[in-house]
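Homework-ish question, so no full write-ups if that breaks the rules, but can someone show me the predicted structure for this set?
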Amino acid sequence: MSAEKKTNNRAKKKRELKGLFNMWLLNNAQACIYSLGQYMRQPVNNLLMTAVIGISLALPASFYVLLDNVRSVSAGWDGSLQITLFLQNDISDLDALSFAKQLDADPRIESTNLINRDDALAEYRSLSGFADALDALDENPFPNVIIAHPKITDGSQPEIDLLIVDLEAMPEIDNAQYDSQWIQRLFHLLDIINRVVIILSAMLATAVLLIVGNTIRLAIHNRRSEIEISKLFGGTDAFIQRPFLYSGFWYGVFGGLIAWLLITIALQILDKPVRELANLYGSQFKLSGLGFKNSSILLLIGVFLGLGGSWVSVKRHMRAIEPL
Amino acid sequence: MIRFTNVYMTYPGGSEALKNLNLHIDSGEMIYITGRSGAGKSTLLKLIALIDRATRGQIIVNGQNLERVRHNRIPYFRRQIGFIFQDHRLLYDRTVFDNVSLPLVIAGYRHKEIRKRAQAALDKVGLLNKINNYPMALSSGEQQRVGVARAVVHRPIYLLADEPTGNLDPALSWETMKLFEQFNQVGVTVLIASHDLDMIKRMKKRIITLKKGRLLTHAGTPIKE
Ligand SMILES: Nc1ncnc2c1ncn2[C@@H]1O[C@H](COP(=O)(O)OP(=O)(O)O)[C@@H](O)[C@H]1O
Ligand SMILES: [Mg+2]
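A: Not a homework solution, just the prediction itself:
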């Protein structure tokens, strides 16, 4: 009997909770639609506001896209990080070949490429125009050369320096030359630019927060009497705050969409000249856009900043409004 | 039932709006609070609605000791009260319907129910034909009646009116008072702050008078100044 009552109570409680949840859902849907309606009611003002937010989001996002593209180009250059190994003169062609294989087995080396001294001579003869001078020599002046491509983890200099020291210590090697410092410099430069973009993003994100916060502050101010009346008739803080939070949400969504649109248009404009330039270098390189993942992230960041800005503003300014 | 026991109210600025107030209002009563400007009439109403809290003393409303109503419960407490103001306090960017339905929306009624009740309330004040108008298109008397409809639409236990007829001509004032009487007749406890003594006397209801924050007349005694 009492157990039956208990289950009845539990079922009742469950129903009540479900009802509360449904109401919460309904309230949110209402506030969401309502604030969208408010947004549409002042299209010019809100569009200007959203454009400012969109541009603030588009700036760092487009830097990221640019950086991404530069990285994808320079990633191909990792291969040109190469160490030229001049072998001792007394190493025979056969020994050079087996030595190259031995180097191949080193985990720090991606691949090797043996340039036979005779081939080198032949190539030099045909290219340099010093054929006569070379004929005057009675011995091939070129040593056997191995081009080693080190395995790049992050292009870090000390790792490669260490590798070179090890290589030069080998008896077969006369001299190791590493002449791709400009790529190192490029990587460092990219790293600096990357940090600049991060700093810039943080600053512009703060700007978006402040812009949304201020807009919501003005909206709260403009609807002061509505807030007062709502509080007087028993509106909870959550109820009263909700439309303002949702308008922050819409600012974020539309700001993110505008940012996405700006970047997409910019990429469209740049696409053709970049491809033509790449063609001149014999490359198939093509600007890559935001893609689905990054577009979603951009939109999410927009929503996050919009909601965050309005949340801060609501917390700061709503409490101050009390009826009468 | 509303009971004030030794209630003092001193505003932060230092003005003593109520001093040692003792008052008992029965459920279903209709009562007028009168007194000069600054006597403390609005303060009395504000304390009942928990818009302000008393500095000292005990206030009990509908069995609840107001001191014990926590801040986050105040909204739910206020849903048993309807308010009417001298300056109407309508939302001028919303239609009459939206204004009247606000307390229902706040309380989470369903759309169909909201429409039904708002229509009934507007019908009661004779403004059903203005349901889709904006308040600006209405006369001051009509705006006041929209305010009345909004105050009763959620069927409150208490109706608090602060100088509701201050801006109305005598005929309209009388109509408004009669309207309040109708709500009172169906069980709503009505408190009206007003200084329109002539009209108040004609209503033949209990009158209390405040003077500089003190209660001047005892319960039930007609006023004599
Ligand atoms: N929010 C407030 N802050 C400071 N003093 C107030 C406030 N509201 C009212 N008072 C003061 O309290 C006294 C009573 O005011 P009130 O209750 O509004 O009187 P009434 O409604 O009878 O005209 C007055 O002296 C008034 O100046
Ligand atoms: Mg007053």
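Now go work out the reasoning yourself. Hint: The radius of gyration of chain A is 33 Å.
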